Amino acid sequence: MKVRILLVEDDTNLGFIVADQLKSDGYQVLLCTDGAEAFQRFNEETFHLCIFDVMMPKKDGFALAKDIRKVNTEVPILFLTAKSMTEDKVEGFKSGGDDYLTKPFSVEELQLRIAALLKRVNIVVKEHEDPILKIGEYTFDTVNYQLKHSNFTKNLTKKEAMILKMLCQFENQVVARDLVLNAVWGQDDYFVGRSLDVFITKLRKYLKEDEHIQLLNVHGIGFKLQITS
Q1: Are 16 and 4 in contact (CB under 8 A)?
Q2: Domain co-membership, 144 together with 203
Q3: How do residues 175-198 score in pLDDT, each as one tens digit?
Q4: Average pLDDT of the residues in 95-113
Q5: Checking CA distances to 202, which of 19, 68, 122, 153 falls within 20 to 30 Å?
Q6: Do 188 and 97 touch, CB atoms closer than 8 A?
Q7: CA max distance for the chain
Q8: For residue 160, is it left (φ>0), alpha (ψ between -120 and 50) or beta?
Q9: DSSP string for 35-88
Q10: Considering the domain boundaries, does residue 127 fall inside one?
Q11: Who contacts 86 (Cβ-Cβ below 8 Å, separation ≥6)?
Q12: 10, 116: one domain
């Protein structure tokens, strides 16, 4: 399996050029044109490196990096930007970035920065990642969106599966409401918030067969998948 890179660039011409170069270098690349879409895709798939433009619609690169760091503290993040001011670079590092490349840049410099970041974190690409998660008495097939218990099998919707996977990732920890909304819907407003509440109610119903599992609302913060022995 190849190293997978999430590239986020709202300049489609530049995005295609960089993506094509990275693909020719042997990487798998997913190109997104805004930060909201990128955060959704990051939570749906596995990536080994992120390359973010800073000035983007819906969610800028700094905000995207901050959200990524809430769910993954290890994936390397490289900023590509026309901003060269020292305070902008400082903001990039504060938001969770690992390196900073100012436009215009050479292909060779980009290649070297990527190689250095991957070497720094000692990336190991797994051939096969187990798609089956254990949740108390349940098994959760994250690829086929199936939740199985000895009493039943439930086919989940994609959004139900995405929410449950995120809650499992932070088992016995509080997950912020806005983080779930942005990861699953790409936005945080009243209407999608109401939809999230409906999905949480459904998931709570699906998980009720195991008395050791509680899907809790943490008032004013978010949700917690609590599993006791």
Answers
A1: no
A2: yes
A3: 999 999 988 888 888 888 899 999
A4: 90
A5: 68
A6: no
A7: 60
A8: alpha
A9: HHHHHHHHHHS--SEEEEESS-SSS-HHHHHHHHHHH-SSS-EEEEES---HHH
A10: no
A11: none
A12: yes
Residue 223: Cβ within 10 Å count: 25
Range of the domain at 142: 132-227
Residue 49's nearest CA partner among 16, 2, 12, 92 is 2
Residue in the block written with tokens 């042997």? 26
Contacts of 94 by beta carbon, 8 Å cutoff, 6+ apart: none
Mean predicted confidence (pLDDT) in 155-175: 93
SS3 at position 211: coil
Instruction: List the structure tokens of 166.
Output: 């995120």
Helix, strand, or coil (residue 9): coil
Residues 49, 54, 55, 59, CA torsion sign: positive
Residue 126 pLDDT greater than 80, yes or no: no
Q: Is it the case that residue 118 has pLDDT exceeding 60?
A: yes
Q: Is the pLDDT of residue 148 over 90?
A: yes
